[in-house]
Every structure is written in C-alpha cells, then in structure tokens.
C-alpha cells in the first residue's frame, strides 16, 4: 500500500518507509533521523508549508522514541488539503533528531516540550531547554521507565 | 514570602507576620558538603533551624539512636544580600507547608536573609504552626535533616535536591504524627488537617494512610 507522497518520494529516490494510513486516511511515513532534515526541506519545497502538529511518544519500554510531525499543504481555493504524517524514530540511548525549527518555525515550543518530556535532543534547535518542568529536574517524565520521585506536595498535599 | 520583610521590632522571630509570640530556637550544625560550583569543593554547611517552642531554650535532649545536631556558632551583623531584582529576585529553596529550606543564611533574630552564603542550608520548621512541637520532636526533625544533608553530600545544589530533602522531612513529620509524637495544634490559624484527619487509636504501621 503506497500513497501519493510515497510514490513521489520513490520517484525522486528519497529513502523512506511507508507505515500505511491512519484512521483518517492520512499517509504515514517513517524517515530515518539522519535523513530527516534534508527531507523536511524537500517536503517544504514540495508544498507542505504548514506544520500542524508535532508530538513525541515512547514506543515501548526499552524501545525507541518517536517524534511525529503532521504536515499540511495550504493553498488558496483548496478544501481538502494534502496532509501527511511523518514519524522519526530515535534510539533511547542517544536520541538525536535534527530540528526542523529552521523549516517550520512553529515547531519551536513543540520540540522543547518533546525534549522536556522525553529527552529527545533536537539538533540545531536554538534554545532547547525544559519548558514545562523546572530546569533542575532530573529525568524525562513521559518515558515509560520514568519513576516519579516521592515528592510531598505532588502526591500528598490536600 | 515574608522571610525578611517581617523585620519585627521585638526580638522574637516570626516567619509570617501575624504571630508575635513566636519564640525561636536556634540550633545549628556544621558539616561539609560539596556544592554545585566546581570551585567550591568542601563547604561548611550550617543549619540555622528556627522553631517556635517555649522561651529561648537550647535543645539538649538527644534521642539515643539518632545523631545529635551539631552546634553552629551564630553569626553577628548579618545583612540581607542578593535579594534584589538584579539578582533574579528569587532564591534557591524548597518550600512546602511544614518545611522550608533555603540555601542561605537566615538570621533567627532579625530575619536577615543573606543569600551570598549559599553553602548553608536553613530549615524553617512548620512556620504556619500546624503542629504542637516539643524540644524532643524538634530535635528529631533536625537530626533527620542533618542526616539527609549528609546523605546528599556531593549532590548538585539545585532545587531538585532541596526538594528531595524537604519531601523526606515532610514524610518524616507525617510519620511522627501517625506515631502520635506530635499533635495538631488546635489553635492554628488554618485548621485543615493537611496530613489527615485526627484519629483515635490509630496505629502507624509504616503504611501510608488511605486516601478516600
């Protein structure tokens, strides 16, 4: 099963892997972290000028970390814009993914949150630091192997 | 936070300005930890633990099993330093309801808050006066604080570490409460039983209280 974008990428010899379609029929592609920045530029030139959503999750205990990008192609006079979902997987030991801040500026806070919650370090992000947790916090709270510290006010104050 | 702004005319210490009858008790210990800065390796950590008990009595009772708090000489002419906006307007602290730990020296008499002395940790115990404290229970908390600071020697001096220490002290205070060593102060200004409602014949067996 191959979508339109995947066929286009194959035609131009760009390495990717199709992950099928989600429940809304949006094409999902997996891209290697080392290819992601150049492919992001290619996709922007292709016409995906709107990054609708960026999020990240922990795939499995001890497994990979994923960074997800939903891209949309916004044009005049289009009521069904093209959309695509990109997933980039990084190893848990050294999760490094190139930042697409310089392609889509709106990913700034999203990548900071992904860094804060899951510890994915985005290369070339201008100010990658914690955004939700205190800066002295230790650990990545949304990883599956995170153990919450036994802080008093969090759990016991009432 | 009225740590230093409540500079009271009387010589009684008041963390929060509404109580003028607070009496202070100072008990300090000297020991060394290494702080976050690389140039500061071994530091003297002094704890000026301020507590409201009876008239200014120095604690002498020592529980047999726990290490007695080590004495610390008081400082003279402490000035408030590095409290202004140009220094960030904030301080390194862990504040929960019963435990406030500051990485600073707080003068127990004048409440001067010297934040240049970040090698010292100051514990303010139960400033809202929710529990009835005796000298003995205060000593327990202080020596537990001292043990914890000794335990975290070498850890970076961050808010996270202070929070770990403060949370452990809060759990310890709750353990004391469940064992019946301290009681709720029925004359407290806010009487919401923040560590669980009082019970009759409740024995603490090491388990946490059920949350409804």
TrEMBL record, chain A:
Coiled-coil region(s): none
Role: NDH shuttles electrons from NAD(P)H:plastoquinone, via FMN and iron-sulfur (Fe-S) centers, to quinones in the photosynthetic chain and possibly in a chloroplast respiratory chain. The immediate electron acceptor for the enzyme in this species is believed to be plastoquinone. Couples the redox reaction to proton translocation, and thus conserves the redox energy in a proton gradient.
GO molecular function annotations of the record: NADH dehydrogenase (ubiquinone) activity; oxidoreductase activity, acting on NAD(P)H, quinone or similar compound as acceptor; quinone binding
Subunit structure: NDH is composed of at least 16 different subunits, 5 of which are encoded in the nucleus.
Any Pfam family hit: Complex1_30kDa
Location of this chain's protein in the cell: Mitochondrion inner membrane; Plastid, Chloroplast thylakoid membrane
Recorded topology in the membrane: Peripheral membrane protein
Record's signal peptide: none
EC number: 7.1.1.-
Main location: mitochondrion
Protein name: NAD(P)H-quinone oxidoreductase subunit J, chloroplastic
Alphabetized PROSITE patterns for the sequence: COMPLEX1_30K
Any one GO cellular component localisation term in the record: chloroplast thylakoid membrane
Domain of life of the organism encoding this protein: Eukaryota
InterPro entries in alphabetical order: NADH_DH_suC (IPR010218), NADH_quin_OxRdtase_su_C/D-like (IPR037232), NADH_UbQ_OxRdtase_30kDa_su (IPR001268), NADH_UbQ_OxRdtase_CS (IPR020396)
Gene: ndhJ
SUPFAM superfamilies named in the record: Nqo5-like
Keywords: Chloroplast, Membrane, NAD, NADP, Plastid, Plastoquinone, Quinone, Thylakoid, Translocase, Transport
EC class name: translocase
Catalyzed reactions: a plastoquinone + NADH + (n+1) H(+)(in) = a plastoquinol + NAD(+) + n H(+)(out); a plastoquinone + NADPH + (n+1) H(+)(in) = a plastoquinol + NADP(+) + n H(+)(out); a ubiquinone + NADH + 5 H(+)(in) = a ubiquinol + NAD(+) + 4 H(+)(out)
Domain NADH:ubiquinone oxidoreductase 30kDa subunit: 30-148
GO biological process: photosynthesis, light reaction
Similarity annotation: Belongs to the complex I 30 kDa subunit family.
Keyword rRNA processing in record: no
From TrEMBL, chain B:
Name of one Pfam family that matches: NdhM
Catalytic activities: a plastoquinone + NADPH + (n+1) H(+)(in) = a plastoquinol + NADP(+) + n H(+)(out); a plastoquinone + NADH + (n+1) H(+)(in) = a plastoquinol + NAD(+) + n H(+)(out)
Location of this chain's protein in the cell: Plastid, Chloroplast thylakoid membrane
Ranges for region Disordered: 35-76
Keyword tags: Membrane, NAD, NADP, Plastoquinone, Quinone, Translocase
Any Gene Ontology CC annotation: chloroplast thylakoid membrane
Keyword Membrane in record: yes
UniProt GO molecular function: oxidoreductase activity, acting on NAD(P)H, quinone or similar compound as acceptor; quinone binding
Basic and acidic residues bias spans: 44-61
Membrane topology reported for the UniProt record: Peripheral membrane protein
Keyword NADP carried by entry: yes
Main subcellular location of this protein, as a coarse class: plastid
Ranges annotated as spanning the membrane: none
Entry similarity comment: Belongs to the NDH complex subunit M family.
Subunit structure: Part of the chloroplast NDH complex, composed of a mixture of chloroplast and nucleus encoded subunits. Component of the NDH subcomplex A, at least composed of ndhH, ndhI, ndhJ, ndhK, ndhL, ndhM, ndhN and ndhO.
Reported function: NDH shuttles electrons from NAD(P)H:plastoquinone, via FMN and iron-sulfur (Fe-S) centers, to quinones in the photosynthetic chain and possibly in a chloroplast respiratory chain. The immediate electron acceptor for the enzyme in this species is believed to be plastoquinone. Couples the redox reaction to proton translocation, and thus conserves the redox energy in a proton gradient.
Listed name of the protein: NAD(P)H-quinone oxidoreductase subunit M, chloroplastic
Organism from which the protein derives: Buddleja alternifolia
Lineage: Eukaryota, Viridiplantae, Streptophyta, Embryophyta, Tracheophyta
């Amino acid at each position: 099963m191959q979508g339109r974008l995947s066929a286009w990428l194959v035609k131009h010899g760009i390495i990717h892997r199709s992950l099928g379609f989600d429940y809304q029929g949006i094409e999902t592609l997996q891209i290697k972290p080392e290819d992601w920045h150049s492919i992001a530029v290619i996709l922007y030139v292709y016409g995906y000028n709107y990054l609708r959503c960026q999020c990240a999750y922990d795939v499995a205990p001890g497994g990979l970390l994923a960074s997800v990008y939903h891209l949309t192609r916004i044009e005049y006079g289009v009521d069904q814009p093209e959309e695509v979902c990109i997933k980039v997987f990084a190893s848990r030991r050294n999760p490094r993914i190139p930042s697409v801040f310089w392609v889509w500026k709106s990913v700034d806070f999203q990548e900071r949150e992904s860094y804060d919650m899951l510890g994915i370090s985005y290369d070339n992000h201008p100010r990658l630091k914690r955004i939700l947790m205190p800066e002295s916090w230790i650990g990545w709270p949304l990883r599956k192997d995170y153990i919450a510290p036994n802080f008093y006010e969090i759990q016991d104050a009432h | 936070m009225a740590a230093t702004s409540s500079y009271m005319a009387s010589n009684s210490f008041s963390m929060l300005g509404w109580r003028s009858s607070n009496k202070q008790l100072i008990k300090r210990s000297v020991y060394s930890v290494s702080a976050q800065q690389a140039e500061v390796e071994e530091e003297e950590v002094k704890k000026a633990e301020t507590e409201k008990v009876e008239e200014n009595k120095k604690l002498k009772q020592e529980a047999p099993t726990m290490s007695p708090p080590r004495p610390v000489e008081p400082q003279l002419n402490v000035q408030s330093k590095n409290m202004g906006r140009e220094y960030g307007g904030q301080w390194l602290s862990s504040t929960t309801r019963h435990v406030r730990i500051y990485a600073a020296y707080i003068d127990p008499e004048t409440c001067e808050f010297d934040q240049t002395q970040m090698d010292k940790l100051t514990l303010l115990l139960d400033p809202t006066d929710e529990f009835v404290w005796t000298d003995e229970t205060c000593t327990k908390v202080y020596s537990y604080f001292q043990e914890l600071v000794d335990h975290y020697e070498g850890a970076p001096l961050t808010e996270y570490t202070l929070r770990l220490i403060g949370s452990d002290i809060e759990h310890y205070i709750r353990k004391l409460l469940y064992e019946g060593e301290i009681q709720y102060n029925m004359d407290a200004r806010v009487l919401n039983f923040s560590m669980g409602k009082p019970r009759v014949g409740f024995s603490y067996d090491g388990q946490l209280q059920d949350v409804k």
